[in-house]
Structure formats: C-alpha cells, structure tokens
Amino acid sequence: MNLQPHEERVLVERGELAENLDRLNAFIEGEVWHKMPEADRDLLIEQRNHMTAYLGVLQRRAARFLCPSK
What we know:
The chain is mainly alpha-helical. It has one domain. It has helices spanning about 5-30, 30-35, 40-65. Helix 1 packs antiparallel against helix 3. The radius of gyration is 16 Å and the shape is elongated. The two termini are about 15 Å apart.
C-alpha cells in the first residue's frame, strides 16, 4: 500500500503517542504515583485523558486511509 506523506506521519504519530500513553499508564500504576501531591496526580490524569482522546482521533484518521471501504 502506498501511503501519502501525511498519512505516514499520522501512523508515526499514532505509534509514538501510543508508546507515550503506555508509559504514562505504567507510571500511574507505579509506586511513585502514590507519593506525588494530589494536584500533580490530577494533572497527569487530565493529561492521560487528553492523550487517550487524541489517540482515538489518530486511530480514526488512520482507519480512513488504511481501510477506505469502512
């Protein structure tokens, strides 16, 4: 499949974001998390929520050019 440059960038960005989100989720499940101030934990949860939404958008964009019949 030949992808356009902007489509390739979407796939790269999607992969990088997924990796970053996995690392953030692992951090939130770790020991350091519980020692952090509540305000910092709240901000990281907010960041995770935004990253999750953004990943969903990139996944939907990728699906449009990877599976155009859907």
